Amino acid sequence: MTVFRKHLTDNRRGFLGWALAITAVAVMYSSLWPVLGDNAGLTNAINGFPAAMRDAFHLDDYGTAPGYFGSSVFGLVVPVLVAVFAIAAGTRAVAGDEEAGTLDLVMAHPVGRVRLAVSRLLAVVAAVAGTGLVLLLAELAIRVPARFSSISVLNLTAICVQLVLFGVCFAAMAFGIGAGTGRRLHAIVGGAYLALASYLCDSFLPQIKGLGWLQSLSPFDWYLGGEPLRHGFQWFHCALLVGTALCFAGAGIWGFSRRDLGQGG
Amino acid sequence: MVEPAVEAAGLVKRYGNARTGRTALSGLDLTVDRGEVFGFLGPNGAGKTTTIRLLLDLIRPTSGTLRVLGADPRDAVATRGRIGYLAGDFRIDGRQTGREALTYLGDLRGGVPAARIGELAERLDLDLGRRISTLSKGNRQKVGVVQAFMHRPELLVLDEPTSGLDPFLQQRFVELVREAGADGQTVFMSSHVMSEVQQTCHRVGIIREGRLVTVADVDALRSQARRKVEIVFAGSVDPAAFEALPQLQNVTVEQTAGGSVLHALLAGSPDGLVKAAARYQVTSLLAEEPELEEIFFTFYERGDQK
After folding, report:
1. Whole-model pTM?
2. In a domain, A93, yes or no
């Protein structure tokens, strides 16, 4: 608990900054809905795009609130920002601290390796969850004034929860790679590649004939593919996100508990 | 019977894989008794920091056995609670004040009274209210000194602890180590500062190329060490009377305007020299404190000769 709390207070500025920035972007997009959503011209234009392109950019159904929110607000910019935030926070939790040479001091104290790693990971999870909560509250606050009350409170909650789990999944990837190897760069690059690969698997690669199955392996699909804005919680997808996170985190913590710590540069 | 504070047997540490790896320790045998202040000396790269990081379970030995305070350090969380550790390049997150950092580190140990932290900070003249990132290297090191000593650990593991401290603070540090020794705490300290070692340590171990070369008692070393003597006489003296003394070496006698000056190296008892000099009129006598440094240098360079 001490390590958990300390990690949150040490990083409070960064965590708060990310939460507010992500929420601000989402609110900005949401408030454009009354302008763009009822715009027949725009809808027609988008309908004129090739189907493959509409699929890739989640541009279906731009004329309805769940369609617009699924493609614009929650479709690309917000999840990408959440993934970047999550990867940065996951990297910092162990590998960043270790390369800065500041992990030695804490590990020379009566703190077990597993306890340290789990506490730090939970702090990152709390930060991502906090971001999701701020975002949800902001969306709920503008839901009526920005005229998207056709999306139910439950479904807005569902997309935010799945967004949090999506972020936790990438945080755990970067955390696991960083904890297992002790290398900051491996964690960042590994996390970024995995994020890019899952985006491609969800958007462009399935357009290639015979590669459609790739989509079901992508955390992007587990986050958005079941259209939580329309159909609410997708429990199986949630389980996949959590399970993937647990695999990466578990492997990373196992490696961390066995290896030599670096002294930092 | 109480087990030694540190006991290593055949300790080997290799870094990296078999092909590109590097052997930092190649069979270290070492025993540090409870209550002892033990100096751990050796040239850079000899394996001092590796040994210290092994004691704290920051790294794991390739082979050999190691026991710290009676237990294998591997995953021994409780053992680390009884140790205080300070690295020469003490590094800590700068986004907090000294007080926040020390309170947190104390909490990891189950709580250290704020009064104790304040008392140590005052002795070292450390401002706890400032953010660590705004502190100088020396002031940052003071935070490290406080966190190592604040919980009065049974075993202090200090890795070149005074690097970056000014002479005044080095002296304060020496006092802290001596107090710890007087309280029965064990101190295991690597250092390059010989004066600090001479003032604090009971025994020293010298490590070279990953092996312990010798362990010596500091008082015994000092009594064996040769000291420089200089005697100024009012008149001229007969060099042969001094050259005949078995305890004296390198005897030279210079004639000066007012008389003569004798320079020599004295090993062992000064009795013969004093009696020989008493036959003349002595105007000044100087005997230097023996320099352990010179002895250590011979071990650093020719470590295999015991």
Report:
1. 0.87
2. yes
